[in-house]
Specification:
By secondary structure, the chain is mainly α. It has two domains: 12-80; 89-361, no CATH class. The protein has helices at residues 14-23, 26-46, 52-88, 91-133, 142-153, 156-184, 197-235, 253-261, 272-300, 308-333, 340-375. The N and C termini lie far apart (67 Å). The model is unreliable at 1-8 (pLDDT under 50).
């Protein structure tokens, strides 16, 4: 369709270019934004004689390529900034980065130990119930149930199978704890250093990138290994003789994709929302590091001169609604037909929204304090 006489054809990507001009540096505009949008506009011009649907598909593909290129550029820039600051920053900033890294690592170890003990205790209770109430040939008596359950639950290979799931769950809150502890007192004179958004983005993206393979492939294999060990111990059989069927949490990314593609059958149709939600959740759990990193930026100014105990309680208060919303998405929203993406990402969106509110309020408060101090005689 030809444009009207006297009219100027509007090329796609103009508004996106203006938005990127506000948010991105000149180097990013020159090397990433402009070449990607130029390719989009060239392909859109090439499709000028085709149908509107074809041109719309060209625009969507170009926008997807733009988002992909910008995301990869942000990841590389954040990682480069993170590495550069770790070795070439001022002494105060080096102290902040070292303090944040060591506090995050310590929080990961402590929270992992606590959750391992809690998960093992819940496993012992379930094993005692199974051993006591299900009478198969050779089953133990009630007096033997607890010692045998403890022997099963504390097997080293069984504890190792729990480790990937536990570490993925504690990573976001550990990052929040590390950043808040580092923001308390980072310079020799006791002044607080706010976590830089670029540094937080780099740390969050690194943790997210490292955790996605764990949730996509390592964790499902470990979960299935856990089930096989428990079933073999309960029935006193060889592991390969009685292999339990895989559930949703035991399917890898590829197996989830295959199951979703073959959901046309009558029995699979009802499982489709659960599979799609589980696939989204494999990315949403690692991406929680970014949401809690933003929350650390918003809370950093409020943690000045606070003790480590107050920081720990703050992290616990922030973690409870997150994990509660995860359960709400799985057990309330998903059965009601809510979109799988929203079911898996509702916790991240709420935490990120709260972090944005805190960041805006902190910036406005600091601007007001600066105006008052400058106006004072």
């Amino acid at each position: 369709m030809m444009p009207r006489p006297g009219s100027v054809r509007r090329l796609p990507g103009g508004r996106l270019r203006r938005l990127a001009q506000r948010l991105c540096s000149p180097e990013t505009l020159e090397h990433v934004v402009d070449p990607t949008l130029a390719d989009l506009q060239h392909e859109w011009n090439e499709a000028a004689g085709r149908s509107g649907l074809t041109r719309g598909c060209v625009c969507l593909a170009g926008y997807a390529a733009f988002v992909k290129a910008l995301t990869l550029h942000m990841l590389m820039t954040a990682c480069r900034h993170l590495a550069g600051n770790a070795f070439g920053a001022t002494p105060e900033e080096r102290a902040f980065y070292g303090r944040a890294g060591s506090a995050t690592a310590a929080a990961v170890l402590v929270q992992t130990a606590i959750m391992m003990v809690t998960s093992t205790g819940m496993g012992v209770r379930s094993l005692v119930y199974a051993l006591t109430h299900q009478r198969w040939p050779g089953g133990p008596s009630e007096a033997e149930s607890l010692p045998r359950a403890l022997a099963i639950a504390f097997r080293p290979d069984l504890l190792a199978s729990l480790l990937p799931s536990v570490v993925v769950l504690v990573l976001p809150t550990s990052l929040l704890f590390g950043l808040l502890v580092a923001a308390r007192k980072s310079s020799p004179d006791g002044a607080s250093i706010r976590p830089q958004a670029r540094w937080v983005a780099g740390a969050s993206l690194l943790l997210t990138t490292a955790a996605i393979p764990v949730t996509g492939w390592v964790m499902p294999v470990a979960n299935q290994n856990y089930r096989e060990i428990v079933v073999a111990e309960l029935y006193r059989t060889d592991r390969k003789a009685n292999v339990p069927a895989k559930g949703l949490r035991e399917l890898t990314f590829g197996e989830l994709g295959d199951a979703i593609r073959t959901e046309q059958g009558s029995s699979d149709r009802y499982l489709a929302p659960y599979r799609r939600t589980e696939r989204h959740k494999r990315v949403a759990l690692p991406a929680a590091c970014a949401a809690f990193g933003l929350l650390a930026i918003g809370l950093a100014g409020r943690m000045r001169a606070r003790g480590a105990l107050v920081v720990g309680l703050t992290v616990m208060v922030a973690a409870f609604p997150y994990y509660f919303l995860l359960r709400i998405g799985e057990q309330v929203l998903m059965p009601r037909g809510t979109a799988p993406f929203l079911c898996a990402w509702v916790a991240n969106l709420v935490v990120a929204g709260a972090a944005a509110i805190l960041i805006v309020s902190s910036r406005s408060r600091e601007g007001t304090e600066a105006e008052v101090s400058s106006a004072a005689p």
